[in-house]
Amino acid sequence: MELLDDSWDLPVSKNINRDLFADYTDETTFDVDSFLLENNFHYVPLDILTRDLTGLTKEMDQALLDASSRSYSNFAKLCKQFSDTAETRPELQIVKLDLAQFLTQLSNLTESDISNTKEIVGDTVDYLKTLDKLSVALQDSLTLHAGLQLAHKLCQALEKLCADDQFFEPTLCGDLALQMHEVTAENRTKLLQLQDTESPLILQLRSESHNVTSRFQACLHVLCDKCLANPGETHTLGLKIATIIPKSL
């Protein structure tokens, strides 16, 4: 019986070419023993294997040289365009000069102009805020002045009614007292809004407000005495004063 016949499959080695190494990357560890066994190169005589690998090496060197030559041609062409003898050289110098000027201006803008502009804007905003506060304070001062003038007139009328029994009218006195109380409360609110202002005008208005309030309190004391002296005729007046005195005295 023959040991070898046509039914046996003999091992076939692969051709050594560039595709054989395509699956290997920089991250792949190349194992020589595995490479030889997987491709059946251990059946190939050593001199033949050496010859094929040497030929592939020369082929790769030539391919690399051809690729470098093609790339070098484009590189040389690009260098020629920007050489000292090229026609584009003056234009490049102009562009370089313009770029340098732009960078200088940009540096000045960043270091000086922007800082100055920011400072100016900040000062302007602060100035506008101050003007706004002054405008509000002026409006409050005008309102307070008008309120004090009205309080002064009301207080004069109330003082006249309280001073002479001939002119005393309980109903009228009660209405004047209520109105005087409302105006005094509004003036006090305006003064609280202006409490941080120490201008001569505000100091004068505070003094006037204190004077009018003191006179109004004196009138309330007189009216209380009249209510106690004649409670039957001053009952309505007493009720009105009772709503004012805890807030005014």
UniProtKB/TrEMBL annotation:
UniProt-recorded name of the protein: Conserved oligomeric Golgi complex subunit 2
A single BP term in Gene Ontology: protein transport
Subcellular location(s) per record: Golgi apparatus membrane
Keyword flag Cytoplasm: no
Pfam families the UniProt entry points to: COG2_N, COG2p_C
Domain of life per record: Eukaryota
Keyword line: Golgi apparatus, Membrane, Protein transport, Transport
Signal peptide (from-to): none
Domain called Conserved oligomeric Golgi complex subunit 2 C-terminal: residue spans: 98-237
Gene3D superfamilies, per the entry: 1.20.58.1240
Bilayer topology: Peripheral membrane protein
GO CC term (a single one): Golgi membrane
Domain Conserved oligomeric Golgi complex subunit 2 N-terminal: 28-89
Predominant location: Golgi
InterPro entries: COG2_C (IPR054494), COG_su2_N (IPR024602)
